[in-house]
Amino acid sequence: MAFHTHHVHLAVLWVLVIMISSGAKVSESARIFTIINNCKETIWPGVTPGGNFNGGGFELKQGQSMVFTAPVGWVGRIWGRTGCNFDKNGKGSCQTGACGSSLKCTASGKTPASLAEFTLAALDYYDVSLVDGFNLPILITPLHGSGNCSIAGCDGDLRTQCPSELAAKANGNVVACRSACDVFNTDEYCCRGVFGNPVTCQPTYYSKKFKSVCPTAYSYAYDDPTSIFTCSGTDYVVAFCSSRNQPVCTYHNNRLVCNESKGSKSSDERWWSLILASMLAVNYLYWTIS
């Protein structure tokens, strides 16, 4: 019996429908966030909005991690608080990153603080911002996704290289590095007024200092080209005080998933290889059977 052309067309269409609908299912699923503390001190991550993240705040001792799930559509930020002291009712204070007097944050943290920012959609956008200052090294590593999916953030410690005029101190120690906008409050440093656009708002001495230590983090408001990244259908590891060369893992569908080695294929490369192989197979059937 002849294998008619319309059968081939239907087969190709069926393959594409399966592939595309499966891909959409991946990109529209909830994202798994693993938050890790690799610092030598206890930190208290804050998250807003924090309904899916233990109410917006929690303690992480050195080496500890916690896993959360956020739905597609979540737009939020994660940061670390340091030098905190909370009572049994979750009331207290922090040296950096405080969101009022509560362990569980309902508002953004006080500057200066390093921020991990996310917009979850069919295509996620994520970045680490130092526009409001720096208090901890923080990296965002996407796992199990497709697209650009670069590591964002900073594994250098600006506290040790902070210009003295920007240094925030506690007990004689530099605990954070303030932004030039926060310290000097000028239109040039704050990218406002006549400096409120990408043409007139240019890198300054201080933003260049930040960028030299943290090349894949926002150093000023219009630092977009090297600071914002995209990925589809991915999970995220948000790690404090980690190296970008340090392997990171999370649990996805009840199995351990780790960041791939440089020599391995990315998920999107394997995906399109599968589509191409399927179409070639159908095409081969057509020419050999018809």
Automatic annotation (TrEMBL):
KW Secreted (keyword) present: yes
A GO CC annotation given for this chain: extracellular region
Bilayer-spanning residue ranges: none
Gene Ontology annotations of biological process type: defense response
Signal sequence region: 1-24
Signal is among the record's keywords: yes
Main location: secreted
UniProt keyword annotations, A-Z: Disulfide bond, Secreted, Signal
Name of the protein described by the UniProt record: Pathogenesis-related thaumatin-like protein 3.5
Phylogenetic classification of the source organism: Eukaryota, Viridiplantae, Streptophyta, Embryophyta, Tracheophyta
Gene: LOC109014833
